[in-house]
C-alpha cells in the first residue's frame, strides 16, 4: 500500500512536470515563430515559393496557427475555433503584422488552454481522432511540439534562402 502511494505520488509529479515542460516548449517556440516572421526584411518574401520549396513561410505560419488553435484551443481549451485547413495553404499576402497578431493570439489560447490541463487529462484519450488510431492527450501534445518545431525550422530556412532582397 505504501509502495503504491509512493508510486502514485511519483507518477503525479512526472505528469505535472510534463505539463510544465509542454508549456515551456510551446512558449519558447511560439516566440521563435513570431521572431522568425518578424525577421523577414521584405514582407512579400513571406509568400515566396521557389523550385522545390512548395510552401511559403506565410502559409506555414497560418498552418501552425490553425493546427494549434484546433488541437489545443478547441480540443483542450474548448474555444469555438473552426479550422479551414485548405485556407492555411491557399491564402496569400496577409501582412506580417496580421501574422504576428495571430501568433500572439494563438500564444494566449495555447497558454490558457494548457493552464486548464490536469494530470488526469494528460492520460485520457484525446477527444478528436487525429491519426489512424486514438491517442492520449499527452501523446498528441508531444506530437504538436515536434510539429511546431519541424515547421519552424522550415520557416527559418525559407527566410535565409528567399528573403535576400
Describe the structure.
The chain is an all-alpha fold and 165 residues long. The protein has a single domain (2-162), classed as Up-down Bundle (Four Helix Bundle (Hemerythrin (Met), subunit A)). It is built from 6 helices and no strands. Helix 1 (2-38) runs parallel beside helix 6 (137-162), helix 2 (57-74) runs parallel beside helix 4 and helix 2 (57-74) runs antiparallel to helix 6 (137-162). The longest helix is centred in the first third of the chain and has 37 residues, at 2-38. The model has no long low-confidence stretch (mean pLDDT 93).
Entry summary:
The chain is mostly helical. It contains 6 helices and no strands.
Tell me the overall shape: elongated
Cα distance, first to last residue?
68 Å
CATH class: Mainly Alpha
Number of DSSP helical runs: 6
How are the SSEs ordered, and which strands pair?
Layout: H1 2-38, H2 57-74, H3 85-90, H4 96-115, H5 119-123, H6 137-162
Helix pairs in contact: 1-4, 1-6, 2-4, 2-6
Amino acid at each position: 500500500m505504501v509502495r503504491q502511494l509512493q508510486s502514485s505520488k511519483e507518477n503525479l509529479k512526472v505528469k505535472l512536470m510534463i505539463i510544465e515542460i509542454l508549456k515551456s516548449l510551446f512558449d519558447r517556440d511560439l516566440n521563435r515563430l513570431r521572431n522568425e516572421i518578424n525577421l523577414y526584411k521584405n514582407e512579400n518574401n513571406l509568400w515566396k515559393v521557389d523550385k522545390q520549396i512548395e510552401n511559403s513561410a506565410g502559409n506555414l505560419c497560418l498552418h501552425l496557427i490553425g493546427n494549434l488553435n484546433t488541437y489545443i484551443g478547441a480540443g483542450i481549451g474548448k474555444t469555438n475555433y473552426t479550422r479551414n485547413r485548405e485556407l492555411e495553404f491557399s491564402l496569400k499576402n496577409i501582412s506580417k503584422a496580421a501574422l504576428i497578431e495571430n501568433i500572439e493570439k494563438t500564444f494566449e489560447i495555447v497558454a490558457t488552454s494548457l493552464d486548464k490541463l490536469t494530470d488526469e487529462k494528460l492520460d485520457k484519450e484525446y477527444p478528436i481522432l487525429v491519426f489512424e488510431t486514438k491517442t492520449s492527450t499527452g501523446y498528441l501534445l508531444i506530437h504538436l511540439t515536434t510539429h511546431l518545431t519541424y515547421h519552424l525550422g522550415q520557416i527559418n530556412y525559407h527566410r535565409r534562402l528567399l528573403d535576400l532582397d
